[in-house]
User: What shape does this take?
Amino acid sequence: MKEFDPSIIPEDTFCSESHIGPTPSGGAYSTAYYTDKWHEPCRKEDAAYIHITEFDKDGGFINDVHGQCFNDIRELFTSEELEYYDKIDEAYNIIMNEGKSRLLTLHKLGLPKMTNEQIIREYYKGRSAGIIQRH
Assistant: This one.
């Protein structure tokens, strides 16, 4: 039986760290990747999300686990960011689901002029960050 070669473990970076030893799924090692509230790589101390990948002794994939580092991810965002994305959520619903005027809706909500594509992009950015949860 082939012995585990620790040299196959990737080097730790500012946004990742690896651990040797049995993993919950029976792997030989795991690597954790940390991202901030916008899912950008960051230091462990600044992480909002964690993605852990487990590997067997040959470096083969076993399992993935995704999680967030806070009970309520909304705590990481400023009141201005939360207000903006609440408005984006409302605008998306009014414009995309109800078919109402984009320019009038944006004006009434106090949002800048945006194309439908920009509204969709901002909506999914808020959903990806976990601060738009409806729909």
About this structure: The chain is about 30% helix and 20% strand.
